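User: Reviewer 2 asked us to show a designed sequence for the structure in our supplementary figure. I'm pasting the structure tokens here. Could you produce the per-position amino acids so we can include them in the response letter?
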């Protein structure tokens, strides 16, 4: 099979999960800030940290896809 197909599958599989995770994180953070506006800074800090971890998974998928493509 063509390597490009495996690259595409690696990127699809590695980005759908983080995309949903970031959407859920942001939505839940907005709900929490709406319920308790005084805690907005703590919620925002935790949300940004969690989003960074979710983005790291997508970056790992990109690295795997590049390895598949060039090795």
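Assistant: Here is a per-position design you can include in the supplement:
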């Amino acid at each position: 099979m063509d390597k490009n197909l495996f690259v595409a599958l690696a990127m699809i599989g590695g980005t759908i999960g983080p995309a949903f995770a970031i959407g859920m994180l942001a939505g839940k953070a907005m709900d929490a800030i709406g319920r308790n506006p005084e805690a907005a800074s703590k919620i925002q800090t935790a949300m940004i940290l969690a989003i960074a971890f979710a983005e790291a998974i997508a970056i790992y998928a990109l690295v795997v896809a590049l390895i598949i493509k060039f090795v």
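For the response letter, you might also mention the following. The longest helix spans residues 3-35. The helical segments are 3-35, 40-70.
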